[in-house]
Amino acid sequence: MQDTMKIFDNVKPRSFPRNTCQWHIQDPASQLLTWNKPPKSVLVIKKVRDASLLQPFKELCVFLTEQKNMIVYVEKKVLEDPAIVNDENFGPVKKKFCTFREDFDDISNQIDFIICLGGDGTLLYASSLFQDSVPPVMAFHLGSLGFLTPFSFDNFQTQVTQVIEGNAALVLRSRLKVKVHKEHKEKKTIVQNGVEENGLMVNQQEKEHGKLTKYQVLNEVVVDRGPSSYLSNVDVFLDGHLITTVQGDGVIVSTPTGSTAYAAAAGASMIHPNVPAIMITPICPHSLSFRPIVVPAGVELKIMLSPDARNTAWVSFDGRKRQEVCHGDSISITTSCYPVPSICFRDPVNDWFDSLAECLHWNVRKKQNHFTGDEEEEY
Prior knowledge:
Layout: E1 5-7, E2 32-35, E3 41-46, H1 54-67, E4 71-75, H2 76-79, H3 82-85, H4 91-94, E5 98-100, E6 113-118, H5 120-128, E7 137-141, H6 156-165, E8 168-173, E9 176-190, E10 203-217, E11 220-224, E12 232-238, E13 241-248, E14 250-254, H7 262-265, E15 277-283, E16 293-296, E17 301-305, E18 313-317, E19 320-325, E20 330-335, E21 340-343, H8 348-360
Catalytic activity: NAD(+) + ATP = ADP + NADP(+) + H(+)
Keywords: ATP-binding, Kinase, Metal-binding, NAD, NADP, Nucleotide-binding, Phosphoprotein, Transferase
Protein name: NAD kinase
């Protein structure tokens, strides 16, 4: 991807030095994708065991391999679907695929661009496969919502060809770089001569240590109270300063892309993905004054359980990797230097408003009848 992709908006995913970030506010129409040389490899993401996607998946793969002579990467578990295994006609095409396994194989430097078949969750999953630079993503609407998937599959051959030939519009969807530092105690038993004395442990030591996990998040980080009946009680710090304590069902930290997801359901404003920002939205706060806020991209947020919290909390990342947050654990969140270049159907502005209208019915209402004459309207 590094040698074949160029994004003409002065923001290149691979051009940032380590630990630095640059943002440029420009006309969205200037974000264009061209290829220095024709792309050769494509990653096809399909929802596993979804029968409705089998035929589009097969048609797309045949088109890419036989007509476009591209190297197609497919997740191994997708090809283990019995409907694909038992399809003898698809066998010759399947043998040409390169396969990989999530969390085992690194394909980040082997993919020129990505094609997603499904709903918004498919794009979120594609984003999670790349912890650094993300190839351009072309998403077809074959799922239940389709806010992030602007392309229709009806004329996919023409649309894919246009992308391969270049000059496609892009929207750079910012991601969140998340670090979860967990403090916990691990009990270790030391046994003499391989046995326990009198059926009891000879020596028991408690070793306190920390575990650091990193994530790249496209939509949101959600901290909630989990199965507990108590309100969650978490402290939120911004650049080292305590800004609020959230008492309620939890808190959502989202990107502009995530502002139309869970955050919108929790009462937040919707922000165009070209706006460099991070949103903090409470979930059912036990306060009349706590409202969603928007902070600049690049600030560092830190979330911890309050010292007097009655229970633990739970955290998830784009709805995945859910885990418990205990006292002493911390979650650090800032803007990632590796956005997701999402290929537009038309352009970033029109695509976004079309999605608002079609998926969320934004600004859809019954219109008033116009006057038929000079008379006043009767009530």
